[in-house]
Automatic annotation (TrEMBL):
The name this protein goes by in its record: Uncharacterized protein
Ranges for domain PAZ: 469-603
Taxonomic superkingdom: Eukaryota
Reported cofactor(s): Mg(2+); Mn(2+)
Annotated GO CC locations: cytoplasm; nucleus
Dicer dsRNA-binding fold domain mapped to chain residues: 134-229
Record domain Helicase C-terminal: where: 1-106
Family affiliation: Belongs to the helicase family. Dicer subfamily.
Keywords from the UniProt entry: ATP-binding, Chloroplast, Endonuclease, Helicase, Hydrolase, Magnesium, Manganese, Metal-binding, Nuclease, Nucleotide-binding, Plastid, Repeat, RNA-binding
Acidic residues: bias regions: 790-811
PANTHER family listed in its UniProt record: DICER-RELATED, ENDORIBONUCLEASE DICER
Lineage: Eukaryota, Viridiplantae, Streptophyta, Embryophyta, Tracheophyta
Gene Ontology molecular function: any one: helicase activity
Region annotation (Disordered) ranges: 221-247, 786-811
Amino acid sequence: MRTRQMQETISKFKDGRVTLLVATSVAEEGLDIRQCNVVIRFDLAKTVLAYIQSRGRARKPGSDYILMLERENLTHDAFLRNARNSEETLRKEAIERSDLSHLKGSAKLLSAELASGTVYQVEGTGAVVSLNSAVGLVHFFCSQLPSDRYSILRPEFRLRMHEKENGCVEYSCELQLPCNAPFERIEGPSCVSIRLAQQYVCLEACKKLHEMGAITDYLLPDMGGTEEGEKNESTDEGEPVPGTARHREFYPEGIAESLQGDWILMQKDSGDANVVLYMYKIKSENIGFTKDSLLMHPVNFAVMFGTEMDSEILSMSMELFVARTMTTKTSLELCNPRTLNMTQLDMVKNFHVRLMSIVLDVDVDPATTAWDSSKAYLFVPLIVGTSDIDWYLIENIAYNISWNNPLQRARPDVYLGTDERALGGDRREYAFAKLRASMTSHNKICHPTYGKRGAVADFDIVKETGLIPFEEIMDDIPDGMLLMADGFHKVSELAGVMITAAHSGKRFYVDSIREDLNAESSFPRKDGYLGPVEYNSYADYYKQKYGRDLRCKKQPLIRGRGVSHCKNLLSPRFECTEASTNEEGQDKTYYVMLPPELCLVHPLPGPLVRGAQCLPSIMRRVESMLLAIQLKHDIGYSIPASKVLEALTAASCQETFCYERAELLGDAYLKWVVSRWLFLKFPQKHEGQLTRMRQQNVSNMVLYEKALQKGLQAYIQADRFAPCRWTAPGVPPVFDEDVKDDDFISDKRSLRLQNNNCNEEVLESSSDLNCHLVHIQSDKCNKEAKDDSSEYEVLDDTDGDSSSTEEGEIEGDLSSYRVLSSKTLADVVEALIGVYYVESGPKAATHLMDWIGIPSRYDMEDGTRARAGCTVPETVLRSIDFEKIEMALGYSFRERSLLVEAITHASRPASGVPCYQRLEFVGDAVLDHLITRYLFFTYTDLPPGRLTDLRAAAVNNENFARVAVKHGLHLHLRHGSSALETQ
């Protein structure tokens, strides 16, 4: 086995990549092998010393040393007894000499040796190399130099004999090192023997190598660092190593400083104070068409901030994927500042909380909600077609008495004590049924998600809120009116209105009033069901399922469609397949027929809620852009903030852009710049040292640490936007840090035990809550997805699916924290380098690297010295046909010494010209950068994975070999290998 292969094997055994090492007696001494748990010796040692040395390999506490002996072999038994006795004698002697008194004269002896020049000692570490060990150290140093299978690197000795006048003969030795060593030749002093001459010249070489930094203060070859941190995914204890995808930590979510404002904490009783707010109108334009009229409504809202935002916010445009065949392009437009008094501010805050509590399904009381000055902005409605605030609508909604009815407020999730994804159906509907079942048992049950607010639900919702109409008015219903649970309403005004079903707590948009149907109409059968009739009429259905005796059975039924949960509209959620295109003309909408007397008109208009469901996605993008603008100002180099945001957005966000392409380019540019800096800064370092030093500057672990130092973790967008975990001002999410503590979880367990008896009944009833839906579509599409009018209902589960996360990412429940892998932070650093390079060139990328703390700048003297090359002997210059090489390359060299170095193989005997390994190191980085840049700008639509494949196909040794042979460059290679000569 070659020395390099042996060193690589031992290195793997040290860091745990190899756990079983089979070795010959060479492993007894001279090799740095880690402590072993088990040492098994097949052949007995030949001497007691060899036995003790191999015994020392099992010096780890609790390790086993196993010897294999031949049965009935008396010689083996005698040797083992003798070895054990000798080991015990040595142990006793070592204990008795623990005071080291016998070494009192050793310091004087070492000083004498140093004075005589036979020993070289490093003062800082005490490491010593003597005449006896110098030759071995030089050989070991040469074995660690970079080489390939065609070059065997070893020192060469040239002896000279000197005859004295008195007839004595002395010898001097010249040491010649391989051409990739820091120096090639050194002359030793004259000595009385050949052996001493070799030892002295090697000792001088060791001194010079240490002075030049080629060997460390421990007198070992300088390898330029280690790569163990990159090779291992985990430590010996199983913990993930920083810089890898498996290493993840919690980080607080960043909030832009421009969003902060104490004005939002002002109360109505603050006197006659006024506040000036900057209003930004949300402009929306629909691209495409959908049959759903609600989706076609514009977003008539504005956002009010305490300070004026950066101008780049106005140039930002975002695409909202609201339907399969339609997107909404939105942007912000600055309006004139608005001055609000405390009454108006209180009214706007009240409206904002009421609106967002319904959109996000979080039951919040505007009078008691907690406001946070770190995120200060409010939503206000606008009069259609203008930039004026709709104060009438704000006042009508903010102080509507309908909010006193708990059914009109939000229905947040409850803690179910099980895997909610396994329940099937609508888990909120299940939660409502479970809560209602517990109420009828007359036990006071604290609503689990109200643990922070202390609300107690100890009443029967249906009876306490007056949902049953008065008998005396049932017979006198005016024409054109419907008697609903909260009074009379005009039929002509109900289209598009949002209503709440008293029997289920669900909300619906009114699609139409079915004059041809009433409660006595036949109840439709389930699709494909051929058995006996289960329900005779709608009235019979509500009687059996909900215990409700409908009293106004002649009233027409309301055809409604469910109000979907708030969705992430920033991600393309619809696959444009041929099948879906062919089915666009079919009606696949799900409707439900509702008795008017079980419905309440919601205080929020349907179109208003539908438009407000876009606000979380819009503000997510605005908040992210403000963070990108803030980071751009911190960096101090102007490029478009949208590009900075792209570099901060991971692919796991599933948005229309991410940092992966920029990361690919930034990684190549970073490798090139650091390689250039190392090449010029350390002209004495060989390729292996430069490679390891580069790894120490560009590894994921280093970039991760630098990202933390600059606080980049607060700016990164690494998980798919989930509105249920988004925090709106004044409307904190249900699952927050205060709720998810140990006491809260224990309360949930007691609640689960308390309601255990009614769980079976609730599950049975909740599974049938949707059985009265009327599915209007062709038979072909029974199992297909719903179309535009109900796509939000179809995709409820997909928005919360954690399986869509990127490698190394986790979706957590905590709203103010997120989990990032350290590799993500490192990738963002490379992506930032990439976008700065694309937008403003190398100067901008170098500025960013300086800001991050990555070395990139070099002195002009270093560049001049590198371009000058080495001094090439005249004999070498005459032996090379420069004109032919330059003609093949199509380039004339000003410094031909660099060309000589580029064609010199490591196997070439030293001639004053270094080999091409250092140039290969920097050339590999140049080539990688140039090809990556070409592919990046040429194939602008290809994903990063395809770009990586193209680069791998273009940059490989076989292709380069073919090019070299095609142009005849191989004929000019200067080498000293017989194996290469025969090829």
